[in-house]
Amino acid sequence: MRLGLNIGYSGARIDLPLDMIQAADRLGYHAVWAAEAYGSDCVTPLAWIGALTQNIRLGSSIMQMPARSPAMTAMTAMTLDQLSGGRFLLGLGLSGPQVVEGWHGRPYGKPLAKTREYVDILRKILAREAPLTHDGEHYQIPYQGADATGLGIPLKSILHGRADLPIYLASIGPKNVALTAEIADGWLPIFFSPAHYQVAYAAAVEAGLARAGGGKSLDSFDIAPSVTVVIEDEIELAYNQLKPVLALYIGGMGAKGKNFYYDLACRFGFDEAADAIQDLYLQGRKGEAIMAVPDALIDAVALVGSKARIRDRLQLWRDCPITTLNITAFSVEAVRFMAEAVL
C-alpha cells in the first residue's frame, strides 16, 4: 500500500503546506493531490509544487470536467506531465449539480454518458493515432451544431503526450464506481470505509472490471481513497475536529433527495444519523447537525486518536484492495508518522 498526500483547495487565501509536501517527497510518498471547488484551481498549485519537489507524483483530485473541454484537459495534462518529467496523474470528476450549474453555468446532464465520452476523447488525444473526431450525445468534434462555421477540421495534438498517462475518476454511487473501474486506471473515492467495502463497493468494482475485459483486474486498477488522519490522545477532540466536515457534506452538499454523500452514509448503515444531519443542516441548525454525526461514522472513514490506536486501525485499510492511501494531514509529524506506519 502506497501513500499519497491530499492538500485540498484553498480558503480565502491560498497557502500551500510546502513543509508537509517536501517531507512527503523525501519520505517516499507516491503522490500529492490538489483539489478545486469554486475558488483555487488544482493545476496551478501542482505546477508550483512540481518545481519544488523531486520524485513525488502530481495528482489532480479533481479537475472538474464541466469546467474544461476534453481537449483543454488533455493539453493541460500533457504540458504538466512533460514539465514534471512524467509525474502527472490526471484525476477527473463531474462535481455536483450545485457547482456545475451554479458556478460553471453548464448543464449537469447525464453524468455516466458524459464521463464515458470525456474519457474516450482524452484517450484518443493522448494516443495520437489519428486526428481527433468524436460524434457523441454530449461532444461533437469537429463541432457540427446549427451555429457552426463549417470550418472546423480534425486535429492531432502538436505536443506528444504519454498514451498511458494514468486517468483517475472520483465517483461515489454504484453506477459511477462501476464506470470508473471499467474505463479508468484508478479510483479516487471520498469518505471511503474499508469496513464497508464488500457491502458498498465490491460488486460495482467487480462489475466494471469485468466489463472492461482484456484481463483487467484489481492488480491493474489503483484504488486510492482519501483518509483524514488526526493524531490526538483525547479521542473526543479528534472526533470533534472532523464532525463539522461530515455534517457539511452529508447535510449541505446537495439538496434533499440529491446528495451523494448522504446516500453514501446510508449505504454504510447510518441511515438514521444521515436523516438527522441533513434535516438539521437544511433547517439552518448547523451546530445540532454537527453534534448528530456519530463517532462510529468518523471511525469508519478516518484514522483518529493516539498513534497506537491509528496503527491498530490501519489493519482495516490493509485488509482492503487499496493500492494508494491518500492522507489528509495537518502536520509534518503526521506525514512522518504515516510513513513509519505504512511504508
Task: Draw up the topology in text.
Elements: E1 2-8, H1 18-27, E2 31-34, H2 43-51, E3 57-60, E4 63-64, H3 70-83, E5 88-93, H4 97-102, H5 111-127, E6 134-135, E7 140-141, E8 167-169, H6 174-183, E9 186-187, H7 197-200, H8 202-212, E10 222-223, E11 226-231, H9 235-252, H10 260-267, H11 271-282, H12 286-291, H13 295-301, E12 302-305, H14 307-318, E13 324-328, H15 332-342
Parallel strand pairs: 1-2, 1-13, 2-3, 3-5, 4-5, 5-8, 8-9, 9-10, 11-12, 11-13
Antiparallel strand pairs: 6-7
Helix pairs in contact: 1-15, 3-5, 5-6, 6-8, 9-11, 10-11
Can you characterise this structure?
- By secondary structure, the chain is of the alpha/beta class.
- It folds into two domains: about 270 residues, TIM Barrel (Alpha-Beta Barrel); about 70 residues, no CATH class.
- It has 15 helices and 13 strands.
- Strands 1, 2, 3, 4, 5, 8, 9, 10, 11, 12 and 13 form an eleven-stranded parallel β-sheet that branches. A two-stranded antiparallel ribbon has the order 6-7.
- α2 links the parallel β2 and β3.
- α3 packs across α5, α9 crosses α11 and α10 runs antiparallel to α11.
- The mean pLDDT is about 95.
